[in-house]
Amino acid sequence: MRTISFIILFFVSAAIYADYSINISISEQRLYLLYNDSLIRSYPISSSAFGEGQIENSFKTPLGSHEIKTKIGTDVEKYQFFVSRELIPQKANIIHEAIDSKDDFITTRIMWLTGLIEGFNRGANVDSFNRFIYIHGTHEEGLIGMKASHGCIRMLNHDVLELFEMVPAKTAVNIYL
């Protein structure tokens, strides 16, 4: 009986901590989800309208190795938005046309990234976590596929919902040109 319990625990643990990883191609404006190094999903994204870079207050998308440090928004209704990671319990007006509004709503789910390379995207004035770099939903869905964010990785709301449910915290995220 004890052996069976250990076997069940092993398989449940393996399923929970499956080997997921995320690659984000800036040039393609795509997020690739891999499981054990095999591509299982591909999503359109929107990276920064200001380009790529690590410096704080630059509004640029940071490059390099990251991981998901924390996930925010479990059980939040689709299209609801966050301000400073706090839920605002109302739905954002989703813009399906390629219109850049004055707002930059963070909707549906947040996967907060932390950099893994000291001095490049971690620490001092280059720290992705302290810069509040997320993978998140957006109200400007019509701009997905174009560089339009303020540094984060934006996704369609139904895509960020799916990704959020699939990947655990600590999932590796590589952002490259």
The average pLDDT value, as a whole number, equals 93
Which strand order do you get reading across the main beta sheet? Answer: 1-2-3-9-8-7-4-10
- Report the CATH architecture: Beta Barrel
Binned strand content: 35-45%
CATH-defined fold name: L,D-transpeptidase catalytic domain-like
Enumerate the spans where pLDDT stays under 50 for 5 or more consecutive residues.
Answer: 5-15
Total of helices: 2
> What is the global morphology?
globular
What's the CATH H-level homologous superfamily?
A: L,D-transpeptidase catalytic domain-like
Radius of gyration: 17 Å
Largest sheet descriptor: 8 strands, mixed, barrel
For the record, the CATH class is Mainly Beta
Number of beta strands: 10
Secondary-structure element series: HEEEEEEEEEHE
Class by SSE composition: mainly beta
Domain module tally: 1
Distance between the termini: 52 Å
Verbal overview:
The protein has 177 residues and is mainly β. The longest helix is centred in the first third of the chain and has 15 residues, at 2-16. The protein has an eight-stranded mixed β-barrel. Mean pLDDT is 93; it is low at 5-15. The radius of gyration is 17 Å and the shape is globular. 14% of the residues lie in helices and 36% in strands. It has helices at 2-16, 157-166, and strands at 20-25, 30-35, 38-46, 64-72, 80-83, 86-91, 106-115, 134-138, 153-155, 172-176. It has a single domain, classed as L,D-transpeptidase catalytic domain-like (Beta Barrel), CATH 2.40.440.10. It contains two helices and ten strands; from the N terminus they run H-E-E-E-E-E-E-E-E-E-H-E. A hairpin with a 2-residue loop joins strand 5 and strand 6.
